[in-house]
Amino acid sequence: MSYQMAEELLKRRGVSLTSIAEIVYILQSAYYADLTEEECLSSVKAVLGKREVQYTLMTGVALDELAEKGLLPQPLQAVLEADESLYGADETLALGITGVYGMIGLTGFGYLDKIKLGIIGKLNDDRGRIHVFLDDLVAGIAAAASARIAHRHEGAKVYPHVTGTE
């Protein structure tokens, strides 16, 4: 799989890279006043450029599409159709994406999984299609891209001098 295939896979499922970058901007703009949406989009693209992210995306989307066609074995088919709240394989798969950028990626994912910001909420609430995996994968991509910005931002490399005793 390639970056272009990953982007096309997302587009086919109704997700633009811009919609993910918008989430990244919301997450990081409070910390970096000079952050641009272009930087956020660039970070999303960098995350999607990683082969393990591409494979994870491919796997999750394939499971969603197979479930839409009714091709999964029972009871898995019923679990995905219901988007069962105790089914955690979707989050587990997405966590593989967030792990690339450490704990900040993990906490960002947890936040996005809870509040369902932007396209994540649209995917989660879409009753015409099955997006059990995709909503979490998009949250994972956004969280990883957000963490990537935090790790790369110049402010992250500056440590204030502490004086006095405690």
UniProtKB/TrEMBL annotation:
Q: Which domain of life is it from?
A: Bacteria
Q: Name one Pfam family in it.
A: PgpA
Q: Which residues form a coiled coil?
A: none
* YutG/PgpA domain location: 17-150
* Gene Ontology MF terms in the entry: phosphatidylglycerophosphatase activity
Give the GO terms filed under biological process for this record.
lipid metabolic process
Q: What is this protein called?
A: YutG/PgpA domain-containing protein
